Amino acid sequence: MRALVFHGPWEMTVEDRPEPVPGPGDALLEIVATGICGSDLHGYTGENGRRHPGQVMGHETVGRVLRDRTGAHRPGTLVTVNPVIGCGGCAACAAGTPQRCPDRRVIGVGREISAAFAERMVAPARNLVPLPEGVPAEIGGLVEPLAVGHHAVRRAALRPQDRVYVVGGGPIGQAVALAARRAGNPGVVVGELDPARRALLTRLGFAAIDPAGPSAAVSSPVAPSATDDPAIPSAGGVVAALGGAADVVIDAVGSARTLQAAFEVSALGARVVLVGMAAPRVEISAYAVSTEERTVIGSFAYGEAEFRDTAAWAGAHAAELEPLIEGRVGLEQAPGTFRALADGTLKASKVLVHPSG
Ligand SMILES: [Zn+2]
Ligand SMILES: [Zn+2]
């Protein structure tokens, strides 16, 4: 089969690879589309060290069942794949939270697994999540990042009255904003440096703000508050856009700078959810946590039920979610697309690779 193989920083080629062979608990899938994730890009450049030479990446995928050795899914069934594989035997796995399994593996991250930037892939049958009948297939490729956003919002224990600031308006920030609205809190403000991403967020119905702008100008589907005074510093602009200090900040970037911003715009006692993974280590203000009683909450992936619920929700909101897909390429164009996304010449938020397209 044809597959996109990572060979080291900035090196990717399309090659023939051996057909994947399903084991007793596995299914074989024909891949329809796989999203390029920010973590794939940071792996591709070598920045995060979470991808390895020789690996076939791809964890945001949708495909059709060719063969399920467990018999649980009929051939032809359209499925997305929960890429988190737990050991199956520990307390976290028993609770349906394999993202907390100490022996977890993740399809598309683990180097030993040939993943979804390929014509075909093997996955444990129990990780397949069928999509509702009639849903456009590509929506299945969005479920994984949407589930990341849903889990982050659940980790925040979001209440409708909370003032919510989302740091970063890329695919995960977009997913967080959508999940907050899904959870009954539609008034989130998203901070994003890139104007094209702010425009996408506005189209999705969210208030988007440039956190670096002198006036932290708001582009909002609702009337902006009085933030166009250039004297207002960025944190003040964010607070003005929210109508007060944030009760919840969800950091979808994850750097020292963004965590510091999260503290600056949030109220004493706020919850700060760290879901972005830009930096493996950060130095943060201890007093912003201790003397001001902020809670810093980690969020990784999703539980099994959260992933399934998000697949069902995405299926019911396909038209609303379609604008998230900003590019589509075949496998042969994928190396060039990775390069262009990583060096910034291509600005698209979410690009789907169609391995047979
Ligand atoms: Zn991802
Ligand atoms: Zn486990």
Automatic annotation (TrEMBL):
The keyword Translocase does not apply. Residues 171-313 form the Alcohol dehydrogenase-like C-terminal domain. Its cofactor is Zn(2+). It comes from the Bacteria. Keywords: Metal-binding, Oxidoreductase, Zinc. Residues 23-133 form the Alcohol dehydrogenase-like N-terminal domain. Pfam families: ADH_N, ADH_zinc_N. Belongs to the zinc-containing alcohol dehydrogenase family. This is Zinc-binding dehydrogenase.
